[in-house]
Amino acid sequence: MLKTRSSSNILSHNLGELELRVLEALWQRPHLDARQVRESLDADSPARRAPSLSTVQSTLERLYRKTYVDRIKQGHAFTYHASVSRGKLLGRMLGDVIQLLHDGRMETILSSFVQVAADMDDTSLDDLETLIRRRRALLLEAEQNGEGQGESGHD
Asked: Is residue 10 situated within a structural domain?
C-alpha cells in the first residue's frame, strides 16, 4: 500500500535533471562560479545545448536554498561547492523511496537491494557482502568501545 504524500513533490529530496547535472559538475570540480558550471555542462554533453547562464544561476540558487550546495562570495560572484556527497544524496533519496513504498516488512527492502545488486553484474553481490561485513565490523568495534550504535559518518 502506497503512503500518500504531496502530489507536487512525491519525494522530499526530489531533484530535477538540471539540478542533478549541476551537482555532478560540482562533485567533479568544486568551487566553480555559475559561468564555469555552465561551461562544464556544455563540455559534458556537447550534443545537448547548454542552459543559459541565468538558468544555471537560478538552478544554483535553488540548490543553495535546498542546502545541496554552499557558496562563497568572491568579488562580484559566488563560487559553489556541493554540501552533500553523492553517497549521502543517494541515501536520502533511497530513504524517501523506502518510506514511500515500504510495506512494513524488512524482507521487502533487503530483497530489493539484493535483486538490484544481482542485476548489475556478477561482482555486485560480492561487493554488497563486503560492505555488510565492514559495517558489522564497525558496529562491533563501536560497541566494544562503548560508543553505541549511532551513525558513523561513513558513505
From this structure: no
